[in-house]
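Input chain follows. Return structure tokens only.
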Amino acid sequence: METYLRSCRDVLQGHMKNSSGLLHVVLGNEACDMDSMVSALTFAYFLSKTLDSGKAVVPVMNIPRAEFSLRSDSIFLLRETGLSQDYLLFRDEVDLHGLQKLAITLVDHNVLPEADSALEETVVEVIDHHRLERAPSPACPVTVETVGSCATLVTERIVQKAPEVLDQQVAQLLYGTIITDCVNMAPEAGKVTPKDSQYAILLETRFPKLPPRNILFQSLQNAKFDVSGLTTEQMLLKDMKAVSGGDLRLAVSVIYMTLEPFLQRPGLQQELCEFCHKYSYNLVVAMAISFIDNKEPFRQLAVYSSSTLYRDEVSKALEKARNPNLDLSPMSSPYQDVKTFIQGNTLASRKKVLPIISDFLKDREWKMAQGSNLEDLDLEDDCIDPSDSPQFCEDPAMEEDSGVPPTPMNSLVEGCPLDNGLPKINTEVLVEKVSKIASEEDRPFEEQ
């Protein structure tokens, strides 16, 4: 496998110079966690061995190279497997939108984000373990099964179609990922399925020189939860997925520590505000996770937004969710812009929470289009679109120079300092409200 990965950059460069042939890219999700990385690497290697000769296949990590340093568990697994991260290709090194002849296999996700929607017609296969959101198409075979790890499904495909592709390096990558995703195969963690266990045991049996399960799991877990020295921005980027709908764009980040020390980080509220403006998010959902005796998860959840409207909407959607019920209990928060909860349903990982948020956004967007909930909008709390805001935080001196008195943070207009304390008035909503009032005044009294 090492020889294959070393050749991928040359394959890509050769294709870009002579685009007469088809380039087949295996693409993981935007979080680029260990499962996404390993599934992309191993499935691309499998395709390179089984597709017709002459077809170029490369795995692409779906993040900028600079962010990979935050994936400490993935880096550890590569190093322990004898592979260098220098062999990997990243999204900022491959212009997928600029390639003329392209085929994409999606692993560890089944739909492309909105920014990549133009690439949908190039998707030729999907292998994933999340909820299916992709419309069926005869041109794109889909393998979706809610196992604990996408690497389990990749292992199954390799074993069934080309077992000779499995060598020590491939097996160790897949094995380390499966036991990590399934929390060392502990049933109380609620991740492992019979198929995950089946293929973990198969890899152990075929490759007896694999590191002992408990030792490898603990080493990978220690690497994943090591957030020492990370800034708040880095902690949010370490394992983040984005979701959007209408005027809302959310970051959903897994935080590898309990909420209490995270909330006590100096200047946290300002850093959350800066993060949202830098990456154009309206809201951040931080899912804190830790483990009791390395088996049973303990989960907490925080919702940050400078907009009371957005913060309350998303919080209520999560509190009211029934499929699954997150069993959220409010916690005390040191910030008015951050709502915090203990998550009683410890089996509901981000894989379960993301569909709740996606469904809420779709329902919200539909209602907004129908105008059915416009009266519920509070114009005073309508959050400023990050694209309309300056990409820096104001200081008092700047406000003095502008001749505008500073807005106190405890004023009736809430928000992040980057919002300049000014609500964004939605003129369409305002016009509709005024029109409705006028029409009601024209009606007979008994109809009002």
